[in-house]
Amino acid sequence: MKIQFDTLDYQTDAVNSAMRVFEGQTIKESNFTITNDDPQGTLFANDGIGVGNRVIINEEQMLKNVNKTQILNGIVPSDNLFGNNKAFPQFNIEMETGTGKTFVYLKTILELNKQYGFLKFVIVVPSIAIKEGVLKTFKITKDYFKNQYNGVIYDLFMFDSSNPNRVRSFASANTIDIMVTTIQSFNKDTNVMNRENDQLSGARPIDLIAETRPIVIIDEPQSVDNSDLAKDALATLNSSAGFRYSATHRDNTYPKIYQLGAVDAYDNQLVKQIEAAGIEMDEDGNRAHLKLIEVKTGKNGITAKIEVYKKTRNDADKTILNFKANDDMFTKTRLQVYDEVGFIQDIDPTPGFESVTFSGNPEKITLESATLEDEATKRAQIAKTIEEHLNKELKFKKTGQRIKVLSLFFLDKVENYRVYDEEGNPSLGRYARIFEEEYERLIHLSKYKDLNDVNVPVSEVHDGYFSADNKGKLKNTKGDTQADESTYEMIMKNKEGLLTFYDEEKHHTAKANKIRFIFSHSALKEGWDNPNVFQIATLIETKDTITKRQKIGRGLRIAVNEDGERVPGFDVNTLTVMANESYKDFAEGLQKEYEEDGVIFGVFNKDSFATIIIKYDEVTEEMEILGKEKSEQLFNYLKQEEFINSSGRATDKLKQAITDQEIEVPEDFIEIVQQILNVARSKVKSLDIKDAKDKVEVKVVKEALADDFLELWNKIKYKTTYKINFDSDKLIELAANGNESFDGVNSIQTRKGTYLYKKGMVEMSQAGVKADESSESSVRATTSGAYKLPDIITFLQNETSLTRKTIVAILQSVNNLDSFKNNPLSYMNQAAKIINAIKNQLIVDGIEYTRTSDKYEQTLFSTETLNAYLGEKGNSFKVDESKQKTVYDYVVTDSSIEKDFARKAEMDDNVKFYIKLPDWFKIRTPLGPYNPDWALLYEEDDDEQHLYFIVETKGDTSFEQLRPHERAKILAGEKHFKAVDTDIKFKRVSDEAEIRG
Prior knowledge:
Strand order of the largest sheet: 5-6-4-7-8-3-9
Number of strands: 40
Shape: globular
Distance between the termini: 52 Å
Mean pLDDT: 83
Oligomer: single chain
Structural class: alpha/beta
Helix content: 25-40%
Strand content: 15-25%
Low-confidence stretches: 35-47, 754-784
């Protein structure tokens, strides 16, 4: 199978954010001389000329571009272009794990070449694992990008100290060339990259790289340039600019130009939702539980931390206590069951041999040995992971979804998976043995008898990701050795095989096709993932060194089906983490990790409201924002009125205002109350981790599938086809001159670059020398020559997908081409936006739907498997089944607005029946599939007349505020229901009560 790639809006937004940094740049390259003393010749240009990047816009213009991008993305504008490393401008791009940042920066590289002609790029990574991940993404995206970018030639290579000539060809290539290197390859003087090299005629590889003025991509900068040494190393690259990609930026001195944080990624279902399941054993102190946690030597001698039961007022609770030699276990715990343990005879702190010896039974506990309880807990974890796995396979089989399910177990010791006898013959380790026992027990249950892999031998359904020695024996490593490099290669190589079902008829019988359960060394904790990992369990005996974020990062990505296509939606994409703790502790721990990495949840500051947009022109992208000064005034007012507390967090008063959608603000802010509440709502969100215990399977209320349901279903069940009546002459006319909704290309005005003259007073005082800007004016000046005009026809063809003939006709109809000469790039960008806006409007206006005999399949309501989560953070509403007003016993919703709508529809006596329309109820539109929210059967007061509604709930966002693309899909959906012609009415509401209007 081959993984397929889609055009995803959020990824396009991230790419465009990088593009805007260079607005005003025209295509330029910089040439330099390469010495060639090699008589055999090398892989470089025959003329000995090196080819590099050249940025021609000044720092002032670049900062303006950055600020514009930040405002468009809701980020507070930066005052400075440079961060802590002043060597070259760098920009933070925040993307949550699993959202495709490697794909995004590879696409950004190609787009930077397409728009600005940049050719040389260096990707700096922190580890071998991430380096291998970059190489894998390059390989699997190459065909897709070549198709997207008209067969553009580009290459990517790993810096290899044994092949310096590849650096020479990098310097001279006149096509896109991308070098990938770890920071460790050039952060010391002794590195090959920093030493003179005979193969390069005495030049240092770093000097040739620096001459190209590369654009630098820094992957996980918090691990790459976290020292002065690393910053100095990056400076030697002599970069034109840098883009820093991470889910958690530690250094926020660099301007952030795009952000897709954890909460936004979960809210928009761009990654899997997370549910945590904890295995806890609580015997109320009826057994002498002993678990050695830590041994250390300090001022007060040698002490040990041991987990024990301790008597409380009512019963006994597990707790970790400090112990020293001669401590009596009964006295410390106050539980009689510890009498037989006696007192502590000795504590051994020797690294690797830490232990505590007792006078009674057990005689000794160690960090290395698992207690009986540990063994039972691990068995329960393994069994529950297998059960969750098989249940997910069963769910997908019932719904006809060909999605292969994978589960991942992390181990900290190879011997728990594989052991060897004296002759080197392998056999099962402890946890592999337990896995096979539990799998054999579960797979033969009658409910799993029809699963695809039920007859595959247990020994072939699991395998391990461990590094091996020269004889092939698995061994423990730290994740950054040469042996690990081959392991990462193996992981990447097997990715597609693991995603392919075992199927003898299709000849999919390779080892990887049979594997569904993966055991991995805990050292291999970053740089790789698999989209179809749905369960993760940690079977670690010593200190768990894998962070919760690293665990979930291996399986956050959206799943793919057998054809390699993404299958979005939380009904498919739920990642179950089998935690070594309670659900509550896991969720709190994960949030704490995010906060330690600089992701602060729910805290307001004086700049929180600065990016509220007051005025915005969709075409020119000119805007007016509230700004920092007004934001600070509003922040201080909200603190004064106790909407925000002294820590900057929302009070109950503000949370109530968000619920009521009403808040009193000073007169200056009355016009933007809705935007203020939107900012406040986004700030009070936190990570939404589900509790596996709260999961229930949604069941059909069979009695409800009767008269009212059938009456409503018979109104909406019909499918349609569409054709588009597209008038090219009208497009040309409107694109040139505009209509009531959009200005045309003729409205575009541009101005030549102007010189700014700034004057300020210089004051000297005890505090030092300070210059205050007192005036600013533009100066009339002419440049030495006109701009070189780019190919506007080809540019507009690529941006609008219209024919060359149509583009030429539009340009022949306009009378402002002087504006194109003044500022070509600005004119072209505005023209592309205008033409696309007019084109999409005409497409929607020209859609003509026709009802067909095809119908949506009613039986899918009974066969679809849905899960609901209960509790405070649940995603569902429990209905009153006796009313028989909807299809299921729970209504599964996507937002609090939808949950509120369901609650009110249930209470409204005029609503006879309502359906939350499922994901499979999709209407085809030329702009992509459209899935409406609700269908309602409504009865007027004191009147038996029935009305039928399709309802779109968009909360407090007005229809006009929706993205044009989304707006157009809804309008197309409206036309579909008109064509169905069953008296169905289409409504857009923010509250259930508005249906009566």
